[in-house]
Predict the structure of Kinetochore protein Spc24.
Amino acid sequence: MLLDEDPASLIANCITNFSTKPDRDCLKRTHAALADLHSQRASLLTSQRTTLASQNRTLANLQNNHAITTKSHNPITHSTEISRLDTAKFRIAKEAHELEIATERLAKEIGGAKRALSEDGEGVGGMAGREEEGADEMLLKLKVYRMLGIDVEADAETGLYNKAVVRSGKKGDVKVVNVDPRFSRYFYANYFWDAL
């Protein structure tokens, strides 16, 4: 009996009895949401791949720089240089300490000599006292120079100190330096320190 009717009309009657529009709208919305999700996921993956490629390039550059630095670094040369600098530092500190001790000793000797002179009444007076102090100062400077290995010679005609003999124990040589007043004391101090 049912089969006597046209199947198309049967299907049409069934369709009218069921409300499929809300389901179809829901399916359309679901497909649209899935499409948006796929496009967002694709764009996120693209940006992550770009970031990863950039990070890989940075890592490769850093690894190359590290390899070059590691190959160029010589630990033996480095330790030798550190040892040499430590030795020089301690030698300079020892020389500075010895100079401080010598300066204190000479200052005490000068103080004792001045007291003895004042007790004896010698060297009293304006110019005589100043000349004695100048001589003591010059004597002290000459002693310090000699302790460093520098002998200063005075000119026979003028009496000015215009020649220095520098003896370097480290280098094992002797240099004679003519002091020219055109150059500053700073220049000669640096020159003497370099020569020692």
In short: The radius of gyration is 49 Å. The helical segments are 7-17, 21-72, 75-120, 126-148, 185-195. Confidence is low (pLDDT under 50) at residues 122-129. The longest strand covers residues 161-168.
